[in-house]
C-alpha cells in the first residue's frame, strides 16, 4: 500500500458537493483521483483553472493541460481558465472553501511549515501562504514521518513557518487529527497501529476525541481495486 495514496483518498472524504477546493503540490494532487463519484467538487489550480478532473490516461494527455505541479490533468465539463492574478484573488479573497496542502512540519497548535528547509536552496513559497490564510478550511496531508524516520508532527516547528495556527485537519497514513481552539485532537487511528505506537512517533501533545474511532483500510483498498 502506497501511504501517499491512502492519505489522498482519506483527504478526499473530507470534501463535500459544492466545495471549491485547491490542491497543493505533492500528495494533494492525488486527491483528484479519489473524489467520491456522488459528490460534485470543483477543483482549482493556482496556475489558472477551475474544473480540474482526475488524472487522464497517458494516451489522452494534453501537454497544454497541466496543474501547478506541471502534471497532466483532465477537465470537467464547464471548466474555466483565468490568469494568475485572478487565481490568487480567489485564494486571498476567501473564495476557496477548502485547500488540501502538504507540509514539512506541523505543530500541535496548528502551525504549518511547508516552504523551506534550513540550509537548503529555496525555490520560493509559491501560493502556500495565500492558500493557508485565504481558504476557509485547511486540510494538511503528510506522511507521518520523514523518509529517514524523523517526526513531522512536533510540539513546535523548527523550520520557517508558512502560517501560524491555521491548520484545521491533519491526515497521515496512520491518523486523522483536528485542531480545535489550537489544540490537536486525535479522531481516527488505523487499526494496525496502537495508541502507544502512535505516541512513540508523535512527539506533539494531543487529546483523544470523545468520538475517537479505530478504522481499517478496507474501503480504500476496495476503491483502488474498482479503479483497476
TrEMBL record:
Entry superkingdom: Bacteria
InterPro entries according to UniProt: 3-oxoacid_CoA-transf_B, CoA_trans_fam_I, CoA_transf_AS, NagB/RpiA_transferase-like
Record PROSITE patterns: COA_TRANSF_2
Signal peptide: none
Keywords: Transferase
PANTHER family: KETOACID-COENZYME A TRANSFERASE, SUCCINYL-COA:3-KETOACID COENZYME A TRANSFERASE SUBUNIT B-RELATED
NCBIfam families named in the record: pcaJ_scoB_fam
GO molecular function: CoA-transferase activity
Keyword Transferase: yes
Matches recorded under Pfam families: CoA_trans
Gene3D superfamilies on file: Glutaconate Coenzyme A-transferase (3.40.1080.10)
Organism: Thermoflavimicrobium dichotomicum
Protein name: 3-oxoacid CoA-transferase subunit B
Coiled-coil segments on the chain, per record: none
Protein family: Belongs to the 3-oxoacid CoA-transferase subunit B family.
Amino acid at each position: 500500500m502506497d501511504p501517499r495514496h491512502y492519505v489522498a483518498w482519506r483527504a478526499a472524504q473530507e470534501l463535500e458537493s459544492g466545495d471549491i477546493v485547491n490542491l497543493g503540490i505533492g500528495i494533494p494532487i492525488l486527491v483528484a483521483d479519489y473524489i467520491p463519484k456522488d459528490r460534485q467538487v470543483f477543483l482549482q489550480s493556482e496556475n489558472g483553472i477551475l474544473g480540474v478532473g482526475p488524472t487522464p490516461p497517458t494516451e489522452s494527455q494534453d501537454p497544454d493541460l497541466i496543474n501547478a505541479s506541471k502534471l497532466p490533468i483532465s477537465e470537467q465539463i464547464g471548466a474555466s481558465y483565468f490568469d494568475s492574478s485572478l487565481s490568487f484573488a480567489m485564494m486571498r479573497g476567501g473564495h476557496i472553501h477548502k485547500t488540501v496542502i502538504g507540509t514539512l512540519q506541523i505543530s500541535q497548535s496548528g502551525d504549518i511549515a511547508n516552504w523551506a528547509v534550513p540550509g537548503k536552496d529555496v525555490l520560493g513559497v509559491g501560493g502556500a501562504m495565500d492558500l493557508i490564510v485565504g481558504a476557509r478550511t485547511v486540510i494538511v496531508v503528510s506522511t507521518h514521518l520523514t523518509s529517514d524516520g524523523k517526526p513531522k508532527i512536533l510540539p513546535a516547528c523548527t523550520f520557517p513557518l508558512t502560517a501560524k495556527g491555521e491548520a484545521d485537519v491533519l491526515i497521515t497514513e496512520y491518523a486523522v487529527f483536528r485542531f480545535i481552539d489550537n489544540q490537536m485532537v486525535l479522531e481516527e487511528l488505523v487499526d494496525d497501529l496502537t495508541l502507544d505506537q502512535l505516541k512513540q512517533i508523535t512527539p506533539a501533545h494531543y487529546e483523544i476525541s470523545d468520538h475517537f474511532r479505530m478504522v481499517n483500510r478496507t474501503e480504500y483498498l476496495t476503491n483502488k481495486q474498482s479503479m483497476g
